[in-house]
């Protein structure tokens, strides 16, 4: 029966794709399918198929776990989706990107949430997995300096951060930091660099920024330590107890005067409430931008859009945009290409399509979450991937 | 005075001087012949005997000629079938299997080369660029050859795999080019992610499809070889020849008794033709079978095992290189590396061990050398994944792609070089034996046709002469 259903679906998809092709749709031309009317969105191109715009009738539960950074957004999406479709319950959990990928691979959840795209290792081991971008995120660098007003933002760049994390700069009033921040009075206290305990997409992003070869220090960082979801932190960084999740590292920083930490943008409100400042980071052009500048985050993504591969795995750290914030990334849903139950597949597809269309509205991504919506071309590629789910 | 001798059994000779009264007694003989002819559809031994000698002769004539024609047709068809299969092995199956194997190796080498170039950093070396371009060009050439050979094929699986490679290869090349562009523009991380997207296409689509094509071409080679040396039809042909020979011998014996003729030249020629052609047929077939079995056992089989070793070694090398880029803490590369190296050997039952056991000469020596090189490579590689687990990425990179002491790259290159030389040697063994086997069929088909004509003509001529004596 399942085979017959799949065959029927494949034939239907092929017919619909043919109709779409005849009506002149193109790979990137039609943008997000969110504006289309009717119960099903038809797509052409690689993995052409259909994307339902509503869940199947009958009670259903969609399960999600993973990135702590995505958790607030998923919570909001789940609540709103359930309010629209009373028959569907979306259960969300904040764990880690690694857990999200692992659980989605094993099939123990329907959706894994991750700040990082799947590695080649994940894909070779689980070629059926898809990483579908849901929104754009940015990473902030926070510090606990009570004497520095929150309204003022320290200027930091990749070189200074690398020198802090490799132990070259150990005090906040170091001349090199003061050189970038002549207007701010910096205290003569030790810097306590914090890092994440678990395999983390945030660590991947932050160490990627430190590995961008913008200075000899960063070249050395790239050569000696490099980037990864986990890295061999220098001894003095490793001495500080690592923290679990964004909430853990934020709480630790809030209680440690002199700390510095990398935290996902969705925790900015919490961080500032707890008295943590956030830095303006230098991009490749040497311009300092804040993670809260929506235009800067959106601008950072723009140069990459034409070259985004079909699986939408791309690193956008320290990109070429002159006015782009340097640490940006897509937040991903990790989902299997095939579900045992076709109804679950339809429900997951409908939910993910809703997230990248309705769920990308400022109402959901604004406020404390501070994500940015996907560009139309990226949402279209995401829909193509959603259409491949069977 | 002696009593008159009883009339000798056998044909009645027309005696011009015989008394007319004796001739009048004869009318019963034609009647007997007529009865035998009318009884033909339901012949039995009794009725044949009842038909008399002419009936038996007529029966022998028709049956021998018919059997001879059947044998000739069957022999020619069998020889043609085996010769065609042997020729197919030499001219088509073996080259296509080689093309499929080369395509896989080119694709895999291209991926490792491009990934290494990204890791080393811009600008990519001219050597790396030329090697990558050469790999892609070679893969495209082999793909075109395979597509051309499968044009019009009803094998939908191989067609789908060939389509997957031909549509995936440009996508892969595009991602690699984007990666190199990002790298040149000072964005090594984006280059790494583009290279990862390229490698995903390679490992999820291209290599599995290329491997499936290789497996099917290899199976086609084995099937063609089996067809060239298969037993059933040749056994039927020989049995029929033996039966015809037996009938010819019995016929001659019977005629000797009936006619007192010791020699029936036509039947003698037919018997000799059956004997010679059967011995020729059996000798050629045994020779071909021996050649092909030798070629398969000592050439094709170890060559395929060594080719699988190259594929596994490239996969393991890819695990090392890709792991340096992905850095996610995933153990999948490490696990896959271990699995691939266990497949290669040289532990008992591994590819290298079985290849070494069945290879001869240079092939065996290269398999032994490859086993030593593999052990040395594993030893150097042992620390690579430990360094990755400890997040010692700089040391890991030095081990994986460095040129200094402790780098695993030279060990991998040495291993693959031995394997490729072993494959070349084993394939030469196969080609030589297959060509020799295929050549042995030369002239046999014509020989069988000539033998058939001789048997049929000899039998017909001899028996019709005897039959004519009764008219």
List keywords for this structure.
heterodimer; A: 390 residues; B: 471 residues; mainly alpha; disordered N terminus
Multimerization state = heterodimer
- Provide the structure class of chain B: mainly alpha
User: Poorly predicted ranges of chain A (pLDDT <50, ≥5 residues)?
Assistant: 1-38
Q: In total, how many beta strands of chain A?
A: 13
Radius of gyration of chain A: 22 Å
Helix and strand run of chain A: HEEEHEHEHEEHHEHHHHEHEEEHEHHH
Largest sheet of chain B: none
Q: What is the radius of gyration of chain B?
A: 36 Å
Helix content of chain B: over 70%
In round numbers, the mean pLDDT of chain B is 80
Largest interface: A-B, 42 and 35 residues
Q: What structural class do helix, strand and pairing data of chain A support? A: alpha/beta
User: What order do the helices and strands of chain B follow?
Assistant: HHHHHHHHHHHHHH
What does this structure look like?
- The complex is a heterodimer of chains A (390) and B (471).
- Chain A is of the alpha/beta class and 390 residues long.
- Chain A contains 15 helices and 13 strands.
- Chain A has helices at 2-22, 71-84, 97-106, 120-125, 158-165, 175-180, 201-211, 216-224, 235-239, 245-254, 268-273, 294-301, 342-356, 362-365, 376-388, and strands at residues 40-42, 50-52, 60-66, 88-91, 111-114, 129-143, 155-156, 192-193, 259-264, 277-278, 280-282, 288-289, 328-336.
- In chain A, the strands form three sheets. In chain A, strands 3, 4, 5, 6, 8, 9, 10 and 13 form an eight-stranded mixed beta sheet that branches.
- The two termini of chain A are 14 Å apart.
- By secondary structure, chain B is mainly alpha-helical.
- Chain B has 14 helices and no strands.
- Chain B is elongated, with a radius of gyration of 36 Å.
- Mean pLDDT of chain B is 80; it is low at 1-50.
- Classes of the chains: A alpha/beta (390), B mainly alpha (471).
